[in-house]
């Protein structure tokens, strides 16, 4: 019996220690709030078992009365602690049904009756320790164990529904262990004249009843009882203390294991949370990468558009690239671009769909009310199928499907509407505010393209006018003067013929031939300058090579051309044209005034003060000149004006009798912050 008491106390002590240690850990699981009561219950039960061990051993008889008194206090205390723990398990771990609020009222009457009945037992002629032990078990330990068992069984269902099979099995085991505890500890008591343990002739059995040894006198006295220590011993062959020890081990095992598994589940949940956080981080990183790639795609598209605009590419080519970029980058099924030709006619210019970009050759009027409204209001808008009320049916040209969402951005030039660009989808979600912002960026590029197209047209017109003026000046200075001179010479020849002055006649005739030869050379050079293919068709370098070859054939001047460019010609289209014109002007001056036999033309790259230039050097072996008194001054001034018009400069070095060197430097387009821009020196 001593060994049984010892192991019972050891089991309950382990339960209390495990609960206390779990209480000190930083963890969060359903049982944590009730652990203080469980720890106190375990330590109290362990103390009661060990006190029973000392009383049963009889080795400390001088302290028997003291231990008995302590036990009388601890026995009901264990019941109270278990009742508090059980109620917490039942009430706090899982929500109780609404009707359970009536339980206290329902139990008042029977509890009051039991308490009244129990109070009468204390006046019976028996040791007071026996009724305290019995009624603390009946009134406290029994309901506490039952409530705790029901609470664990309810927790079993909850954990099972959550998918925690390991915890649910332990919760079920703990619930059954507490119900078994309710039976062997709370319901089986020493022999007594009341309750399930009642019997006859109780007054004759009073000695050692508390320790469970007096009940062996029941049969000797012919006593009758149906649920007490002796009945358990007779039915199982083992004393009730043994079954209580097994119950203690069962409760301790399932509860402690349940606490450990809760800890494991918490670690598992932390691991899941960590994985979810890592997954969220990866998703955020992927989103950042995607956003960066999208931004880079948009940047590349805008840079390409800016490059085409800067190079004065064909307007239709730039608009085609913009429309195609809008379809690709905004993931739309249709992109349309319409231009306002007059205040009342909005004409479709081009559109993009799954078959590519299509330019409209026949005049197609756009009369969709949403598009007209956006253009007239000069306000961007996003429309979905729910808000469009059927006005999106005729917004997609070339498509058989109707659009269900559209984004529209008007085109404004100097606060005047000039057209509209819009995107549409036949399926999918509505366009976002970000999509509308990107479309507005492309709309700005369309406006810039149209504006640059107008400026280019004006520049071309001015260039034509300027070239005509130059040709007119040269014809006035050259061909017109020669023709006037020839008219006078013809009159002179007529006079000399009449006078019979043959030698003078021949001299004048030779001068006329020389003048005609010079005029013919000027005309041929002008024709060559006009028909030379410029950079917009064959490129600047091929144009220079073609011109130099023709010039050398016409003038019989030895031309040496050296192309030392180590990279692509990075000049604007206007700068390329001006460079060819400057070269033509320089060679014209050489033909007319230098009397040169050899000309060297060198084309190369040059870097000055961190700025890249394309440099052309024209060196002749002619007679040289003094610029102040030279006939070349007008031609040099024209060359300087051409260079200054594209932010370049010209240097002229000439020594009479030692030839002339003309150096022209024009700045390149420079990559700056993702855009090509002209760097002005």
Order of helices and strands: HHHHHHHHHEEEHEHEEHHHEHEEHEEEE
The overall number of domains is: 3
- Low-pLDDT ranges: 200-225, 672-681
β-strand percent reads: 5-15%
Helix and strand content put the structural class at: alpha+beta
Major beta sheet summary = 6 strands, antiparallel
Average pLDDT works out at: 77
What is the helix content? Answer: 55-70%
Please report the number of helical segments. 16
Shape: rod-shaped
Topology (elements, then pairings):
Blueprint: H1 2-24, H2 35-57, H3 64-92, H4 103-121, H5 129-162, H6 165-187, H7 229-236, H8 240-310, H9 315-329, E1 334-342, E2 345-353, E3 356-359, H10 369-377, E4 381-384, H11 385-388, E5 405-413, E6 416-425, H12 433-499, H13 502-531, H14 540-555, E7 558-564, H15 573-594, E8 598-608, E9 611-620, H16 633-645, E10 649-654, E11 660-667, E12 669-672, E13 675-678
């Amino acid at each position: 019996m001593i060994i049984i008491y010892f192991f019972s106390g050891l089991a309950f002590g382990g339960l209390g220690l495990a609960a206390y240690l779990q209480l000190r850990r930083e963890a969060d699981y359903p049982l944590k709030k009730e652990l203080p009561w469980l720890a106190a219950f375990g330590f109290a039960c362990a103390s009661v078992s060990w006190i029973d061990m000392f009383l049963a051993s009889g080795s400390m008889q001088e302290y028997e009365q003291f231990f008995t008194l302590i036990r009388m206090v601890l026995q009901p205390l264990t019941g109270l602690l278990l009742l508090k723990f059980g109620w917490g398990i039942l009430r706090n771990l899982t929500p109780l049904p609404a009707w359970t609020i009536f339980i206290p009222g329902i139990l008042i009457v029977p509890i009051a009756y039991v308490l009244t009945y129990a109070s009468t037992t204390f006046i019976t002629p028996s040791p007071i320790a026996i009724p305290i032990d019995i009624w603390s078990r009946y009134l406290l330990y029994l309901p506490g164990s039952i409530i705790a068992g029901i609470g664990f069984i309810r927790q079993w269902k909850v954990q099972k529904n959550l998918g925690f099979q390991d915890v649910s099995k332990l919760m079920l085991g703990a619930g059954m262990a507490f119900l078994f505890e309710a039976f062997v500890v709370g319901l089986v008591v020493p022999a007594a004249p009341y309750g399930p343990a009642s019997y006859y002739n109780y007054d004759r059995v009073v000695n050692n009843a508390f320790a469970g040894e007096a009940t062996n006198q029941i049969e000797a006295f012919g006593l009758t009882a149906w649920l007490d220590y002796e009945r358990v011993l007779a039915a199982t062959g083992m004393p009730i203390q043994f079954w209580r020890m097994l119950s203690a081990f069962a409760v301790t095992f399932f509860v402690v294991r349940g606490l450990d598994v809760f800890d494991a589940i918490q670690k598992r949940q932390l691991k899941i949370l960590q994985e979810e956080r890592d997954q969220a981080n990866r998703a955020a990183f992927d989103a950042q990468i995607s956003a960066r790639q999208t931004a880079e795609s948009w940047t590349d598209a805008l840079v390409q558009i800016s490059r085409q605009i800067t190079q004065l590419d064909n307007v239709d080519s730039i608009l085609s690239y913009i429309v195609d970029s809008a379809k690709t980058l905004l993931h739309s099924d249709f992109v349309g671009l319409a231009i306002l030709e007059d205040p009342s006619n909005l004409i479709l210019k081009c559109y993009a769909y799954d078959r590519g970009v299509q330019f409209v050759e026949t005049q197609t009027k756009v009369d969709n009310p949403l598009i007209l409204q956006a253009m007239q209001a000069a306000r961007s808008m996003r429309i979905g199928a729910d808000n469009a009320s059927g006005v999106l049916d005729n917004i997609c040209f070339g498509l058989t499907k109707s659009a269900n969402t559209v984004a529209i951005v008007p085109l404004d030039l100097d606060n005047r509407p000039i057209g509209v660009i819009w995107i549409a989808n036949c399926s999918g979600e509505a366009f976002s505010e970000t999509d509308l912002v990107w479309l507005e960026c492309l709309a700005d590029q369309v406006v810039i393209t149209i504006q640059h197209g107008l400026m280019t047209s004006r520049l071309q017109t001015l260039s034509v006018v300027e070239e005509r003026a130059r040709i007119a000046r040269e014809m006035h200075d050259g061909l017109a003067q020669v023709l006037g001179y020839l008219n006078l010479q013809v009159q002179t020849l007529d006079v000399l013929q009449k006078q019979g002055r043959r030698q003078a006649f021949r001299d004048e005739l030779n001068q006329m031939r020389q003048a005609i030869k010079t005029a013919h050379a000027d005309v041929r050079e002008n024709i060559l300058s006009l028909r030379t293919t410029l950079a917009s068709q064959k490129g600047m370098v091929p144009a220079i090579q073609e011109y130099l070859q023709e010039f050398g054939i016409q003038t019989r001047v030895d031309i040496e051309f050296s192309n030392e460019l180590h990279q692509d010609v990075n000049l604007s289209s206007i700068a390329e044209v001006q460079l060819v014109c400057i070269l033509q002007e320089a060679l014209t001056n050489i033909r007319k005034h230098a009397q040169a036999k050899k000309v060297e033309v060198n084309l190369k790259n040059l870097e000055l003060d961190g700025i890249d230039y394309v440099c052309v050097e024209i060196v002749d072996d002619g007679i040289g000149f003094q610029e102040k008194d030279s006939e070349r001054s007008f031609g040099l001034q024209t060359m300087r004006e051409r260079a200054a018009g594209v932010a370049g400069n010209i240097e002229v070095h000439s020594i009479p009798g030692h030839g002339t060197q003309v150096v022209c430097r024009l700045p390149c387009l420079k990559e700056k912050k993702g855009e090509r821009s002209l760097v002005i020196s």
